[in-house]
């Protein structure tokens, strides 16, 4: 259909809609509705911001600086995303290749903000009772046996008799606390399902408590992080309760900063290593070196060759850059070629 005809149809539709609105209540109604909408949105914004400030009273720039002071470098966009997620109190999932900084991020945040830190390493045999609610049967028996019949018998179903599992500790924490659920994709289905309520409402239900069933809720702000290597696809119910941050390999400048800080080397040397690692990552490797490997390689180069990048020092340190035999051959070959080109040019 030609554009002018389409425009005419659109205008006619708009005119009809406006005509209908005008006939129902006139222009005044439309304008009033728009004003009310704007006022309601402004009020909602104030409320959302107040709630956000209660959760995390920092600007994104301050958050970036807090992480940086802990030696953790996150770019502006990712920091802004993290900031939004944290202010909404949502559990934050972190994805990305091995060695990209998934596990370190929550730890750096907790240290930087002086928050408590609770760590939970997941594996397929981890059961819900081990992380959530379970009675400490041993303590109950010991205390029951210790009772000699004078006075009222001990109440064996109070908080004191619950095993201090990571999630229970997080709810009982009396200061803001970061909870790191590391490698959540390794959890079995039963434990994953159990997690949903905790993720959703930051609460756990205790059955058999004296006085009946009790729901324990977090008393201090909780910042829940989950990391995943995508070993297994998480189910949609789980995904709904989390927001995800995809960490990607940093650009050369940021990588150089990480190396400078992490290995204590001068920026020039860090920049050279960062450039080479970036080039190596362009190769068709089975396992590309990530931030962790770049840092390890940088340290090893300083250790064995005083920071000289030569075919000999590369040969000695190749294990940090390449993990599979085919990768080793490919990286060595490429580095030798670059080295020769560079020296011929020089
Ligand atoms: N953004 C970063 N800033 C500074 N150092 C970093 C960063 N990312 C990674 N590192 C370095 O890499 C190391 C490995 O990071 P981390 O253990 O968080 O990786 P990971 O993504 O959890 O890996 P995996 O999937 O193997 O568990 C860190 O100890 C740190 O030295
Ligand atoms: Mg990790």
From TrEMBL:
The protein's GO terms of the molecular function aspect are: ATP binding; ATP hydrolysis activity
List, for all copies, the residue spans of the domain called ATPase dynein-related AAA.
Answer: 94-241
Top-level taxon of origin: Bacteria
Q: Which InterPro entries match?
A: ATPase_dyneun-rel_AAA, P-loop_NTPase
A matching Pfam family: AAA_5
Q: Which residues cross the membrane?
A: none
Listed name of the protein: ATPase
Q: Which organism does this sequence originate in?
A: Caldinitratiruptor microaerophilus
